[in-house]
Input
Amino acid sequence: MLRNLHGFSGLLATHHHYLATMPTLERKITWPLPPIHPEPEYRASGQRAQWYADMKQVFQVPWMGIVTMAFSHYPRFFEVLWQGLKPLALSEPFVDACANLRSRTEARIADLGPSPLVRRLETIGYAPREIDHIRAAIEVFSHGNFPYLLTATAARRLLEGLELGCSRSAPQYSGRHAPRVDAPFVLMEMHHADQDTRALYADIKTTLGLPFVNTDYRALARWPSYFALAWRDLKPLVESSKYAAICEDVHVHADKLVGELLPNPGALTSAELCDAAQNDGAPDEILGVTRLFQWLLPGLVTNVAFFRAQLVG
Output
């Protein structure tokens, strides 16, 4: 999956000058938090269901992220955003950029000193095959969160009057870049969870400052005893300067990718997306929703990389 990183590094080198020239996004959200209206996949129908299926196929993921479920509440905004970004998402540079950003994030996780979990899981009865299943679930998110991160970053740039990269064509990616999902993709929803898991979800929301529990956590809570251990190790680090530095690094590089390094084969412009948000009658609300997700996703990919590092070996 981490293909063509040498070529992508060359692209980075040829564009080093943008560090001082490109307009950049500050990592921030809108307070108070905006209302969000994510329509679950099992309730989606009509055009929305078609969008969900198309985006999942293009990103090669088994789930529709809360970010894009929330975006789809605004139909004109979502239609313009996805029509404009789909040609990019199908391209080799986009796939390589996601792999590069993932590699960069995972390399920084050593700064947090994650404690190994395998021995602890074996002690409480986990078999190697069960631990491998957890690793496989983490791999799905380790791959799949980055397309959503770049989508949210592109949306926020455009809504704030900044443009994407130049409108040039890009070679289409052929083949599969995502991990295969061999087991059922099961989410531990709030109404499935027992009291202890509900309390864990409440702790996650409080600690991360979010009004919802991301799909990643609901998938990993399928193994409640594992996820309680994993979260217990991560939680004290969320307020640390090292954790903040990793999140900021992810944010900055995602912004650089969509703002300068990646092409814009769909020729999507700020004016087009802002007009679409205005057409939906809620431009300020849509901007707030976009800022919320573009702010939280660097933390989410950091957390998933931490969970992955806990199970190395």
Q: What stands out?
A: The first helix runs from residue 5 to 14. Confidence is low (pLDDT under 50) at residues 1-20. Residues 45-310 form one domain.
